Amino acid sequence: MFKSKIAGIGKYIPANTMTNEDLKKYMDTSDEWIQERTGIQERHYAHRTEETTTTMGVEAAKMAIERAGTTAKEIDFIIFATLSPDYYFPGCGVLVQRALAMNEIGALDIRNQCSGFVYALSIADQFIQTGMYKNILVIGSEKHSFGLDFSTRGRNISVIFGDGAGAVVLQPTQKANQGILSTHLHSDGASAELLAMYNPGTHANHWVKEKLATYNEAEIGDMFMTKEMIDQAQNFPYMDGPAVFKKAIVKFPEVIIEALTANGLTTADLNLLIPHQANLRISQFVQQKLALQDHQVFNNIQQYGNTTAASIPIALCEAWEQGKIKEDDLVCLAAFGSGFTWASALIKW
């Protein structure tokens, strides 16, 4: 069996910057309020009509493919992670295949939200290990800005998220002690609705029946989207922030230690931890709990906000470009998010 290595990495950040001060035009908020709770100073928003989740993913992919020393024609599988696809269906993977004029290869779309990129990396790793594929393109891309509630009502969520994309090309390696050492995936759906977007959906509006008392059950079941759902902001994401925070600060350290323990290593061996950029306060708590030094943790949420499935590949790319990741470094990727899902990957660069 082969091991898999990250042979190329790329990112794409939209040009449009939205600062905390800019958000004050739309909602009752302040730079101090946002930074105190999240650490975020600014985020980037894609062009409303000219940039999509797919087009951003394509740009990140082009960079990753070039840096891997390969071509789009040599890619033999695509895995695309996002919660904000261009269409309800089809998925973004086939749109990437079309945009890059690739061969008629397989394209897999996954929906694991903030953990999406690590889940996708784990899937790609299995395919490489078995020898089924040799050049796998893994993309995490999000266009949140088109689906946020830019009002005081929605500020607790809207100030957090940004747009962007990251991508890697995974290839086999036979070099000793190189590549992905292990991946670790988990989920707990007991509290799935604490961080979710309820509508539109095919759940017969289970979570809105109580709020739509003017309709009988049969009518509610037939409604894909109603005026009442829109009026009650049920077409926007919902998050119980304190509950998510409490779960994240437990599962983040657990899954990092799990990866290190599985490989007979400790936090002292870790050169760089790249956590999902959910909230700077969560990252700081995890760093403190694991007694990691500042140089062992990479954060860029201050500039980009939470880009969900794109956050880890963007941060990984930026850390590598800044020379913070070098050959033989031990790098851990870790994520926690909606589902709840959480995951980690330990990599020998």
- Strand runs, count: 13
CATH architecture level-2 label of the largest domain: 3-Layer(aba) Sandwich
**Strand arrangement in the largest pleated sheet:** 1-7-6-4-5
Name of the CATH first level of the largest domain: Alpha Beta
Helix residue percentage: 25-40%
* Rg from alpha-carbon coordinates: 20 Å
Task: Give an account of the 3D structure.
The chain has 349 residues and is α/β, with parallel strands linked by helices. The chain folds into three domains: 3-173, 3-Layer(aba) Sandwich (Peroxisomal Thiolase, Chain A, domain 1); 179-192 and 239-348, 3-Layer(aba) Sandwich (Peroxisomal Thiolase, Chain A, domain 1), CATH 3.40.47; 198-235, no CATH class. 32% of the residues lie in helices and 22% in strands. It is built from twelve helices and 13 strands. The strands form four sheets. The chain has a five-stranded mixed sheet with strand order 1-7-6-4-5, sandwiched between helices. A four-stranded mixed sheet has the order 8-13-12-11, with helices on both faces. Strands 2-3 form a two-stranded antiparallel sheet. Helix 3 (53-67) packs across helix 4 and helix 9 crosses helix 10. The longest helix has 22 residues, at 241-262. The model has no long low-confidence stretch (mean pLDDT 93).
Layout: helices, strands, pairs:
Elements: E1 3-12, E2 16-19, H1 20-23, H2 31-38, E3 42-45, H3 53-67, E4 77-81, H4 92-99, E5 106-110, H5 116-130, E6 136-142, H6 155-158, E7 164-173, E8 179-187, E9 195-196, H7 217-221, H8 227-231, E10 238-239, H9 241-262, E11 272-275, H10 280-289, H11 301-304, H12 311-321, E12 330-337, E13 341-348
Parallel strand pairs: 4-5, 4-6, 11-12
Antiparallel strand pairs: 1-7, 2-3, 6-7, 8-13, 9-10, 12-13
